[in-house]
Amino acid sequence: MNSIFLTLFVIAAIIAITKPGKRRSKPRPLQRTAEPEERNRPRYRDKFNLLNKAEQELFERLTNAMDDMHVFTQVSMSQLFHISGSTRDKYIQIGEVGRKSVDFLICRRDFSIVLAVELNGPMHGYEDRKKSDETKARTLEDAGIPLAIFYPDKLPTTEQLMEELKPLIKKREEYEKKRDWRYGRTQ
Fold it and tell me: Where are the residues of the annotated region Disordered (predicted)?
């Protein structure tokens, strides 16, 4: 009788050891208590405006100052670069800058990049934002893309913009000459 129990115990132990662990079910989405009128709201909705008031004002001034160029808004930085290095390094670098965007991107009529423009509001004073802004500025500089930074309470006039952006455009042109020579490109 004892040998039967011992045999059954050994078989149960072997099954328990060789049996794969309990599979986890998919995590449940967090349940939140919603007011009756909230229950029928969609999870996502469009923004009322793509740009806030200060961004709209700067956009208008940029388009007037750069009337021979295109002005794009909220451009993902992943669209601005070719990343060199190993595949692993590329993924790390893409992760570092890919989620960031520039407020405005100025391009020539042939869509070649001229410069980036940021409008730094009060949120840019926080430590985590400062680090993010530094990464953004460093990455743009490495790629030879000049960055102009403005503040909502000190927006330049159209004429001031034209004057302030001239040296940055010149800087970009100099970078492009060196880059084109390095890669054997001719216009």
Answer: 23-42
pTM assigned to the model: 0.70
Q: Dihedral through CA 29, CA 32, CA 37, CA 41, nearest 10?
A: -30
pLDDT at 69 over 90: yes
Whole-number pLDDT of residue 124: 57
Judge contact between 40 and 26, C-beta under 8 A.
no
The CA-to-CA distance between both ends of the chain, in Å, stands at: 94
Q: Which of 97-101, 128-132, 142-146 has the highest mean pLDDT?
A: 142-146
| Torsion on CA atoms 40, 44, 48, 49, rounded to nearest 10 | 180
Taking the mean position of all CA atoms in its chain, how far away is CA 150? 19
CA-to-CA distance for 73 and 105, rounded, in angstroms?
6
Task: Please classify residue 142 by burial: count the beta carbons closer than 10 Å to its beta carbon, then call 0-12 exposed, 13-18 middle and 19+ buried.
Answer: exposed
